[in-house]
Design brief:
It is a single chain. This protein has 91 residues and is an alpha+beta fold. It has one domain. The strands form two sheets. A five-stranded mixed beta sheet has the order 5-4-1-6-7, covered by helices on one side. A two-stranded antiparallel sheet has the order 2-3. It binds zinc ion (ZN).
Length: 91
Amino acid sequence: MEFEIIRPNIGEPTDIIECQLCELSYNLDEYRILLDLGKLGYFFNEELGFSCHSCLFQIGKKMLKLSGKDEYRLLIKEGDKLQSLLFNKDA
Ligand SMILES: [Zn+2]
């Protein structure tokens, strides 16, 4: 499953970004600060929409369970860079 990290420069500083799973929301100016501090990230997936980093972890755990495998990777895209977030049974 692939997600794209949301950069805070996608709109006006007063625009609101909201996690569609837990409804955690910030304006983009606040989000920029939190992202810089490494406190928060928002991610986008075509099926699931916007999600915050803690929901992203829940999704990873759930996908691992559903896959029935020992490990599962979420792919995180940032511009041209692709990172993966590994979830495994023992973690
Ligand atoms: Zn959330």
